Amino acid sequence: MLAPARRETMLIGGVTALLEGREVFERFFEDSNDAIVITDLGGRIVRANRTWLRLHGFAFEEVRGQTTKVVKSEHTSREMYGQMWSQIRDPEKGWWKGEIVNRARDGREIPLLLTISAIRRGLEIVGYAGVGIDISERKQVEELKRLYDLVVWHDLKSPLGAALSLLDTLLGGHAGELGDQQRDLVERARAQGARMSELIATSLDLEKLKRRKLTLEIEPVEIVGVLRASFETLRHLAESKSVQLELKGDVRLAWPLDALHFRRCTENLIKNAIEASPAGAGVWASAERSGDGVTLRVHNGGKPIAPDVRATLFHPFGSYGKKGGTGLGVYGVKMLVEAMGGRIGYQTGEEGTTFELVFGGAEGR
Length: 365
Fold this sequence. Notes:
Layout: H1 4-20, H2 23-31, E1 35-39, E2 45-48, H3 50-56, H4 60-63, H5 78-88, E3 95-103, E4 109-121, E5 124-134, H6 136-171, H7 180-210, E6 218-222, H8 223-240, E7 244-249, E8 254-258, H9 259-276, E9 282-290, E10 293-300, H10 307-310, H11 329-339, E11 342-349, E12 352-360, H12 361-364
Parallel strand pairs: 7-9
Antiparallel strand pairs: 1-2, 1-5, 3-4, 4-5, 6-8, 9-10, 10-12, 11-12
């Protein structure tokens, strides 16, 4: 019988030898509970483990040599692919991580938390490896929460409307004259109630947008007029932060939009700009004709948007990281702008950040 020390030495030697060979990789690759796929530089599949094949419903012979587009779903946009591959091919980073929805052979949708990394031989990239974690159960829980939230939002509308009506009655003097202090308190309560009502309406509208069931009332809208109204709504916030507001543009410039939802977009962008600006700085908004379309810009002179924030800026719950937001966020702005036939973009640097909405023209299509 081997002495304990001798036996331990042999075990360590055996593990070391195993790690130095291909056996440990092969065992890890095939036995992993995560879905792993390896491709060449052209994205053609050269290896896929049992979990990946089982999850997507393929035999390896069916996908060998095909690109990973064989499992691509309609949920993955060209824009997302562009961001993904720019990070993977970036020599300073070389990987991407995020949620993606794949399509199985039978048409099922498979939500994955996916990490894609470049495979290098020295400094040369020779292929790519993707490791996916099935998050179907988590998505089911999120869907139940979404349905619960919808019920709560709907149930809040009626009592909140009744409360606002009572506050309007008080402000109208129908229950007796209010003193200055009483009126101030009631007006504050009315403003917060109206804000909550707007949050509920926005949340319900975003849900309708996701389901493609939101009805838009498109009509010619004077863009500068909407910007001016948004400035007035947010003037108190700007004054409290010592931020100057400046409006530029042709007052006659109009474009077919949904007035209510367009104003929600402008107020969100202007509010974000005010909150991102240091005291004494300025926020300007402009509208101008560009070719056969129109372009709206909102600029602040604050710090550049942090790189980690940029990656998720247009995702659900993405934000500048500010407190007291409207609940809409630039994700909601993006959805509404695209629903009205436009697009949103931004530029950020040491001179500040400018958000741009484009409607019509080649850029807006």
